[in-house]
Design goal:
The structure is a single chain. The chain is of the alpha/beta class and 236 residues long. It has nine helices and seven strands. Strands 3-2-4-1-5-6-7 form a seven-stranded parallel beta sheet, sandwiched between helices. 45% of the residues are buried. The structure holds guanosine-5'-triphosphate (GTP) and magnesium ion (MG).
Length: 236
């Protein structure tokens, strides 16, 4: 990638960042590129669990603290998630006029090389752009999502209240890389059952299980606090 463009990204130029991510999307290699100092919070989980809605509330809470935040939503272009990108854009657009917020969806359909490579390059690029926080959303449905989450610390797994049966099935998947478990849609019946079902696997990983309701904001302060505790641990 052109050095001048990368320099512009480093100087905090948001348009340059958007352009650079588009180039990555189209298959232009980033080349040797180190990570910036910002912690990457990974948010993953099954389609429709409420990841984007939760992130939208997290953005508000982070802004209330006076911090800036960038979000990358990776679209694996699978039939399962068709339309997710549009939904994310519309929802997170509420922050469009805020200079302290950068939200970008990235489609990786047709890119040369793997989904994980493209996302990793975009994440590295975003990590030098001067944001206080960086959040990456992926749909936790396959191995490539697990690879993307290699870059994230901590990894937050968000599931819905009907997820209980999946826990066993997902033994080798996202469950194994999660540092924090969130049962969202706490307003729906079943959330406490899923919390109970998750507790064993969470405890085995030394992880907490939280219940949130993204649509009302319930539990999101606790979620942000838990993320901060994990971030603090990651630094030591
Ligand atoms: N009742 C209820 N609905 C919720 C809650 N959180 C999200 N939703 C709804 O669930 C639907 C999916 O929410 P999203 O935030 O798009 O979920 P997602 O996990 O980002 O979905 P994908 O990106 O498509 O995988 C939307 O209609 C939300 O309004 C919640 O806490 N309670
Ligand atoms: Mg989403």
């Amino acid at each position: 990638m052109e050095a001048a463009l990368v320099e512009a990204v480093r100087s905090g130029d948001r348009q340059a960042l958007a352009r650079a991510i588009t180039l990555i999307e189209r298959g232009e290699p980033l080349g040797e590129f180190g990570r910036g100092p910002v912690a990457v919070v990974g948010v993953t989980g099954p389609p429709g669990a409420g990841k984007s809605t939760l992130i939208t509330v997290l953005i508000e809470k982070i802004r209330e603290k006076g911090e800036t935040v960038a979000v990358l939503a990776v679209d694996p272009s699978s039939p399962l998630t068709g339309g997710a990108i549009l939904g994310d854009r519309i929802r997170m657009q509420t922050h469009i006029d805020d200079d302290g917020v950068f939200v970008r969806s990235m489609a990786t359909r047709g890119r040369l090389g793997g989904l994980a490579d493209a996302s990793s390059e975009a994440i590295r690029l975003m990590s030098v752009a001067g944001f206080d926080r960086l959040i990456v959303e992926t749909v936790g449905v396959g191995q490539s999502e697990v690879e993307i989450m290699d870059l994230a610390d901590p990894v937050v797994l968000v599931v819905g209240p009907s997820w209980g049966d999946q826990i066993q099935a997902d033994k080798a998947g996202v469950v194994e890389i999660a540092d924090l478990f969130v049962v969202n849609k706490g307003d729906r019946s079943g959330a406490s059952d899923v919390k109970r079902a998750l507790t064993e696997v969470a405890e085995a990983r030394g992880a907490e299980v939280l219940v949130t309701t993204a649509t009302t904001g319930d539990g999101v302060d606790e979620l942000l606090a838990a993320i901060e505790r994990l971030g603090a641990l990651a630094d030591t």
